[in-house]
Amino acid sequence: MILKMEKLILYALSEDKKEILDRLMGLGCVQMISPEQIEDYEALNSLSKRDDPSVYEYETKLSEISSALSVLLEYEPKAGLFTRKNELALQELLDLEGLGEALTRASGIRGIVDNIAEVKSFQSQDLFTRQALEPWADLDVPMDKLSTRWCKVLLFTLPRETDLDMLKSEAASLSCVVELVSSDADLHYVSALAQKGGLDEVQQLFKEKNGLAVTLPALTGTVKKAIADIDKRLESYQTNHDALIESLKEEAKDTSLLKRAYDQLGTAITQQRAKQNLLLTAEAFLVSGWVTEADKQKVESALERYTCYYEFQEPGPDEMPPVRFKNNSLVEPFEAITEMYGLPAPDSVDPNPLIAPFFFIFFGMMLSDAGYGLLLVLAGFIVAHLMPNKEGLGYKMFRLIGLCGISTVVWGAIYGGWFGDVITVFAKTFFGKEIVVPALINPLEEPMTILIMSMVFGVIHIFVGMGVNAYLLIKRGKVLDALFDIGFWYLVLIGLGLLLVGMVTGGGIVSEIGKWMAILGAVGLLLTGGREKPSIFGKITGGLGSLYNITSYFSDILSYSRILALGLATGVIAMVVNILATMTGSGIIGFLVFVVVFAFGHLLNLAINALGSYVHTSRLQYVEFFGKFYEGGGKPFLPLRPNTKYNLVHSKEDN
Fold it and tell me: Checking DSSP bridges between strand 187-195 and strand 151-159, what pairing results, if any?
């Protein structure tokens, strides 16, 4: 159900402000609202000042801590998926006195990271230089002696296809000596000793040969010596880099201080932002927020010790309170389906108790293999049990997987599917025996039976959605609208159904009843569908348009044929996997091939068809079911509570 919300209006002394906010945070059941959402401003004239603290300082510190943690988490020993988080008391989160040590440590980590970046920069520079020098390693001329008074050594790269003998001959005519230094797959690296007076002619010659002049970095000594010096520096850089990494690994052995500081700052920011929703004077302040009716007693008990005045008010006609669900353990996992679609309006109905049985049934019929269902049951419930955080969407989703696994086991047993027909195939291949697994319904032999079941479930599903719409209309005093817009459609659809049954079974009385029900419903829709139109023509066309919606209902009912389609797909693919797994026959090799193909094939089939079943079952809820009654637009209930990522709050404020 959707819990009823009331608005808390609290006037208290400014001296109690921090303590009251701390207690409300500890309760975790009050959603603060801004002063703009308070209607009676005339009564609040004296509370003109807004407590609007800046959170910039806390956000800056949180950024420093977050950056340090992001570095350390790369080197932190990997914790298991289900490792329980550290537990802190609420007061430990609210006490910020120990932040200095954490910030100092974060600063030190930032210094290490900066040093690593500097070392990497030097490494990159030297690696680039070494790469440029490598082809010239055999050049035995000192780099600071490439030019004399009369001569100069020029360096060029030439395409690999260049005829070096011809080049040397042409260069000799210019009093230039060309020597090959090295070659690779694409280029020749050559030196040219030329007289300074003929440099232009030499450069022109190389240009004609598609040569490119090379200028090496300013160095002392030979290229080989320079490379050796670079290698020594690179080795030193690597040593420094490794030492710095070891420092980070040492820091990462215990990140509890930084994680605690992170959650302390996150909680402090949440609290500071909550203060932006206060109105106050020098001596008093006002708190306003949403509280569920069930939590009123907790809030009253917490406020008894303070000098304050408070009251709870019903939501105004123009107010939109947040939405919070309260359902039993079987329905609660299905809240994940609704939350991913969007929350309902607070004055609507909770769709989760209605979704639960249909989602449960449809998913099982679509996946329809008991073996796959057992895997889902184990995976879903075990993971949910081991998760440290028992709140949130993830926990609900894994419990939902477990429940859907139970449905899959049931429908798989009805269809006789246990990893397809693996029992029959395995017994025949490896033991030469015929074992037939009993099935109440064989999908391959009786597809029409499953199709009819799917349609029947679909009609019930749609009728329930229509009934919820009628309930909402009656609840809001629109009884005639419920009769005209829902009741007449019930007559039409049920009448057509009875007419179809009578035609198939030859039952005259059933067909007759169905015919007159359909006619009565159609006439009612025709006469009332355009009742809100001002003109006679508008009323007639409105009635005809309403009656035309019969095509939409037929389309919705046909959509449930996907239940048959996905169930058949799962079973057929599973059978194909089993055939492939036994193609090599019996024996040790055949058994090993069977195990590999069986495991891979069925896991792949489970992954694909479980996802398909989830998507298509959700679609039947979102489109065919929600389309009949759902009113969205609800906002989630976000109470003031500790904002933690790495720690659990094990002790909230007592009542």
Answer: antiparallel
